[in-house]
Amino acid sequence: MTQKTSYISELQCERVTRFKPELPEVFKKGVAFIKAVNGKPTQSVADQAKIRDLFKNTYGLPIVKFKKGTNPVVKKKIINVAVVLSGGQAPGGHNVIAGLFDGLKQVNKKNGLIGYIGGPSGILKKSFKKIDEKVLAQYRNTGGFDYIRSGRTKIESIEQFCSIKDNLSVCNVDALVIVGGDDSNTNAVMIAEYLKQKNMDKCVVGVPKTIDGDLKNKYIETSFGFDTATKTYAELVGNICRDAISAQKYWHFIRLMGRSASHITLEVGFKVQPNIVLIGEEILTKKMTLSKVVDSIVEVIVKRSQDGKDFGICLVPEGLIEFIPEMKELIVALNDILTDNSDKFTEQFLSMEEKKSFVFDKLSSKLSELICSLPTDIVSRLISDRDPHGNIAVSMIETEKFLVEMIQKRLADFKKKDKYKGKFSSVTHFFGYEGRCGFPSNFDANYTYVLGYNAAALILNGFTGYMSFVGNLIKAPKQWECGGIPITMMMNIERRNGKNKPVIQKTLVDLNGKPFKEFAKMRDKWAVSESYVFPGPIQYFGPANISGITTRTLQYEHNKNKKTL
Length: 565
Description:
There is one protein chain. This protein is an alpha/beta fold. It folds into 3 domains: about 250 residues, Rossmann fold; about 190 residues, Phosphofructokinase domain (Rossmann fold, 3-Layer(aba) Sandwich), CATH 3.40.50; about 80 residues, Phosphofructokinase, domain 3 (Arc Repressor Mutant, subunit A). About 45% of the residues lie in helices and about 15% in strands. It contains 23 helices and 16 strands. The strands form 3 sheets. Strands 1, 2, 3, 4, 5, 6, 7, 8, 13 and 14 form a 10-stranded mixed sheet that branches. Strands 10-11-9-12 form a 4-stranded parallel sheet, sandwiched between helices. A hairpin with a 2-residue loop joins strand 15 and strand 16. The protein is globular, with a radius of gyration of 25 Å. The two termini are about 45 Å apart.
């Protein structure tokens, strides 16, 4: 549906009509005035022999970097490109489309772009719309994926690959751009490999998208949307910090998105400096039990209470439960029990008590003891809630409430033993969808536009099975480096739903990396003091050190230290 100017906000009008993303110097004259420089052959991060065997046509390709030069051949080509948005929304998706559109049209006005509607299912259904310059103009620099929408359909079966091959031909598509996270870009390289096997002269290029920040490596310095999402969450958490020191009577437990990695929680921690920041990867490495995690939180609560501070802020990553080894073991065991006995759960057992009794009997004594120690509503969710793949819906578990209930019990025991005399009142929050569709920050607006423009350059130069990469992101956009990395170099073999599958390896918080080490230096001070920082809303105007600032994670990774308050 076309947006109507009379119904858009003043900020949206300003962003749509006046903000102009900045291209790197290498693209100053357009795609026809660059040359691709190939590096050395690459290999996957792990399982090299298996990945090579699965991707005979797209494995071992070189990293490509674009330099100034000339390539008159691209001007002569008239190509039709399709773009699809896949997976969860992330701020800046519309600018990927805009950059791709502009890159194609700058070379040849006859080049065409269509958008498959509703994610990968749009390719299978041949549901698409022509990307029109007049309509696209109303979506530039805005949040959301609403222009062509997104979806989570997985491309796995031979029938699906065959259907995509046929539908791309029917729609006269020469190249496909898949914008998504690790699963979506795994789909991208699998489609690229399949088309190569069928001798189809079509390019497939991926674009790195996820607010979780777990799609990154030496070349993909960050995925788009992470910057905007963490700034959005930081504003909200900062507001709560201000409320906490104003009222001085509540402990706030805030769960943040990030199912498989704690990058969001760590970045928001840097931005706001709350009292407690739980990092799942540290808990996993230290093999902390659930009881030890609760103890670590209670220790800070008691220490602050002894100083007359019965208030504070605790950040909890969404995937915390799966980082606790014993909880992960429990979840695996429950998945097996519930999968093997699915008929009984849907037909034979009617009450929750019957289900619990059956499950408890099937578990080992250690795991049975663990599940009996959990809050009742958490046990019910573990047994009842299932995701589309039939597994326990861990992301739906309200971990922050779960922790609060266990903390309350521990503090009650402490009171009986005269170890704690304070008053514990809690408020819980979950910030997730608030960060996925906001107006992209200036960084994300520029970054996504360049990712799209760069994807056009990869396609026009005939690269397939590659991911668009833009590097040197700590610098101003005109100094950014552009090119492509083979998607296979990011892959390994993982066990998914009982089968070994090739997937892009998620990047977790590196406990030996500079960001975590800097956090570890500061957290003891944050725990006992009110070192809170109040970031305020995202700034779209003003000096570059305010409106163009990158994440603290990127600053530390590039060894650009910044003093903390």
